[in-house]
Specification:
Keywords: Isomerase, Pyruvate. GO terms for molecular function: hydroxypyruvate isomerase activity. It comes from Caballeronia sordidicola. Belongs to the hyi family. The protein is of the alpha/beta class. The chain has a single domain, classed as TIM Barrel, CATH 3.20.20. Helix content is about 35%, strand content about 15%. It has 9 helices and 8 strands. An 8-stranded parallel barrel has the order 1-2-3-4-5-6-7-8, surrounded by 5 helices. Helix 1 links the parallel strand 1 and strand 2. The longest helix is centred in the middle third of the chain and has 20 residues. It is globular and about 50 Å long.
């Protein structure tokens, strides 16, 4: 049965960030994820998780200068030392918050830059990340993202992400399968889920959902999520499914789609 994590970066934005944990728990969520925790002390977030009986499912490693438009440093030549420091900081937070999955963003590439050079840096940095996380029992995930939302993002396709993971061959390096991004770039989600769920030396380490094309609730748009949830169950996925969408109105008012799953749980 699907297990859902509320994404507190996109959901419950009618509340201050630290108050979103209580709001998610009140609505029946048992887990949360978010983009970045670094504006708050790890102990402060952990206290909110414990107070409301929530599991931390996922967050992202520091992405560089987000306010200036950066979207990760893992593939950026010349930023290797910064990436290593960011990884250390992220792993310090995982040790406190207890999540076993960490997303590392690839970063941006311009048309005149060498894709081969970016890929070589990306592979080297992911090897470093997987090795460092392995001793802490952490799975590192990489996410293909569509270039409509993030123009110039380095990693866009599921097969490219799986190939990188297979090349590195680390058991704790997997792909973050975001149904929203995959539908925009490639479509054919059910075939890709079947193909990739249990690949050796790769596979799917985390799943996220949103309605397509507007990134609202998953009961809006062109994807048949009840079918996909049943398929994901049948494939043996037992991780969290992150609800990384922007509610069309107040978050709680748009949760009719999830109530049958929460009631069954």
């Amino acid at each position: 049965m699907p297990r859902f994590a509320a994404n507190l970066t996109m959901m419950y934005t009618e509340h201050a960030f630290l108050d979103r944990f209580a709001a998610a728990a009140k609505d029946g969520f048992k887990a949360v994820e978010f983009l970045f925790p670094y504006d708050f002390a790890a102990a402060e977030i952990k206290a909110r998780l414990d107070e409301h009986g929530l599991t931390q499912a996922l967050f992202n490693a520091p992405p560089g200068d987000w306010a200036a438009g950066e979207r990760g440093t893992a593939s950026l030549p010349g930023r290797e030392e910064e990436f290593a420091r960011a990884l250390d900081k992220a792993l310090e937070y995982t040790a406190v918050l207890g999540n076993k999955t960490l997303h590392v963003m690839a970063g941006l590439i311009t048309p005149e830059q060498s894709r081969e050079r970016h890929r070589a840096v990306y592979v080297k940095n992911l090897e470093l990340a997987a090795n460092a996380a392995h001793t802490l029992d952490i799975t590192v995930v990489i996410e293909p993202i569509n270039t409509r939302d993030i123009p110039g993002f380095f990693l866009n396709r599921q097969d490219d992400a799986q190939a990188i993971c297979e090349e590195i061959g680390a058991p704790n390096l997997k792909v973050q399968f975001d149904c929203y991004h995959c539908q925009i770039v490639e479509g054919d989600l059910s075939v890709k889920l079947r193909r990739d769920m249990k690949r050796p030396h790769a596979g799917i380490g985390h799943i996220q959902i949103a309605g397509v094309p507007q990134r609202h609730e998953p009961d809006m748009g062109e994807l048949n999520y009840p079918y996909l949830f049943d398929l994901i169950d049948s494939l043996g996925y037992d991780g969290w499914i992150g609800c990384e969408y922007r509610p069309k109105a107040a978050t709680s008012d748009g949760l009719g789609w999830i109530k049958p799953y929460l009631q069954r749980a």
